[in-house]
Design a protein that fits this description.
241 residues; alpha/beta; TIM Barrel; 9 strands; 14% strand; globular
Length: 241
Amino acid sequence: MIDLHCHLLPGIDDGAVDMADSLALARQGEADGVRAICATPHIRHDHDVRIHELPERLAQLQWALDEAGVLVRALLGGEVAETALAGLDDDELRGVSLGGGGRWILLEPAPGPLTVSLEDAVRELERRGFDSVIAHPERHAFGADFFERVRGLVAAGALIQATAAAILDEHAGPTLLGMAADGLVHVLGSDAHSARAGRQVALRAAVDALESVPELRPHLDWIERHAPEAIISGEPLRLPW
């Protein structure tokens, strides 16, 4: 499995505190069957993430993983805030594309209910040669037109990334399973920040939970393997349903 959304890089945003914390997160993933993790620091105004430094930071992390015998690949990425998009040029966007594939951008909606501005951001990315993966939509499910907005994002060409732990949550889970039945869950991410608290790097239980959705059962391999592999390779994707 590939974790497409994880704050794995140490000491760069509100994610892993230090290298020991990063290694502990990666070990969680390894134990769960995750073999690659996109390190996706926040690219937004309240975090001083310097995109040009990310390749070197990633190389240092991979060296530490190899030295520790952790069989997980750390991949390039970034969680690009909708509100920060206008300030990034195309080279910077390629520098935070998922897996370094140069195509897919993990896009974080602005706080509050989803609005047409997020769909505009998806279309702007498409105009510039990029595709979008929408991060953790379940955080915005309180909007009265939430499902309509998510359908609009998918119609605009975006994929929807559900947070694995949220699928198992008693509050967020029913909404996400309803989205899945409606064809609106396409890939998973842990959105883990630290091994010391909060969500773990774990996807397997969420994949198993999606098996309870009859509409998705024929497509679990696409969600678990095919789509994430295509995303990190920078390949186009077509929904199989």
